[in-house]
Amino acid sequence: MDGPALRQATDGARGRAAVVGGGPAGLAAAISLANRNFSVLILEKQASPTPEAQVRPRSYVYGINTRGQWALDQMGLRRPGQEGEEAAEINGLRIGFSKFGRARKGGPSKIKRAKALSTVWAERACIVDYLSNEARRQHHDRITTQWGCSLLDLNTLSSTVTYSTAAGDTRRDSFDLIVGADGANSAVRAAMHRQDPQLQVTHLPARRRYKPFYGLKAEGDWVPAPPQGTVVSFITAPTHLMILWKGPADTVSGLIGASEHFMLQPRTKQDWLQLLETYHPELPSHWMTSAAEQLQEAKAARAASSVKCSYIVQSRTVLIGDAAHACTPNMGQGVNTAMEDAVQLAEAIQACRYDVPAGLQRFQDERLPEMHAMHQLDLNVDARYGMQGKLHPEFLVSMATFVFWGTLTKIFPQVQLPPTMASNRASVSFQKVVASIRAHKAAVGAILGSALILLARWVVLLSLQGTVRLPGLSPA
């Protein structure tokens, strides 16, 4: 993918596209457009094509659910889990999910091996390397990358991009399509706003924070057999979440994530050690000591913010991924919806017979309401991590609905979970999930309220019969 800034479009090419950003969203867009005979230039700020897993030791983990897996299928890529493997390495993508469970206070975690890969877990660096390798392997003649460049200017009216190269040169070129896939702090989005101040962008910081730790020496049952980047364990505790994954040279890295209220409380090394011993006693003792030291020194980093845009298309320029709708990690939808964006963008242009402006308008009409619905769901879930805690009304409305249907399907297996309640499914729109929650919340509240009244009546009756004694009540 390295080479001249832009090769001449191959015979029969649909047009020339510039993709700003070489992360999962940008690479997915490049592959999807190249699949439809576009000549694509990726403008990437990273200095070289060195595999990201080697230059960014402090990475983080993505869960690729059925939305992301659908996108990989549409791109024509072999996705992990298709052949039932629990862990694999596919052209740089190191995946797997060894253990998951729930921590109990004062006892070992309930941990078991994953039975299926409905969600594929992988380090971000591995996903980037995988998509980069696939782009190079499948479309070496259609996709090129300009490494170490910075976006200097973007004129959406003329579809012209001005950027500096790693060598210090300044280049300017026009394109048939410009895709802004450059993250939550998008320079493309900023350029669009300069040219049209009517573009409204809402930034809401996440109320969840995390602290990482690295270099724990893997040993015994905790030695993950799969390659670097494989998730070793995903453990939830009453106060926090812990994720562990395999690092370089048989080491294990991890993070602890929780609400701001929890993570910003001052803690000594001994406090962290006590927390690990309380909720994760099955971990090797020397891990706890090293992790406690790092957790005490590390700054509590804020999780990704939530971003909402009033529109995402300006002339021949379009925003996708975090540039269009960054979300917090709470829903686990960031990388999945980013790759979904890329595929649906290419499909919309194809559906309009490669009329780019018409295709972009179609993409915005279909996708923007989905982005806004996902933003609303994200806010509902993120409320759980705010200072309001678990009693926040938005969180309770969402969770009560999911708990009700989840409990009902457990008690009565013949009752199927409504498709609109399964937001991870590629076939279910976020708009339907939001509408379903609104439609069901009154019924759920009435049923739960009735259940509480019946329970209270039953307890009172038992107390009057002498079976249960309550303060202030005695048998007649």
UniProtKB/TrEMBL annotation:
Highest taxon above the source species: Eukaryota
GO biological process: kynurenine metabolic process
Stretches assigned to the FAD-binding domain: 18-374
Keyword Oxidoreductase appears in the UniProt entry: yes
UniProt keywords, alphabetically: Monooxygenase, Oxidoreductase
Gene3D superfamilies found in the cross-reference section: FAD/NAD(P)-binding domain (3.50.50.60)
GO molecular function: FAD binding; kynurenine 3-monooxygenase activity
Protein name as annotated: FAD-binding domain-containing protein
Organism of origin: Symbiochloris irregularis
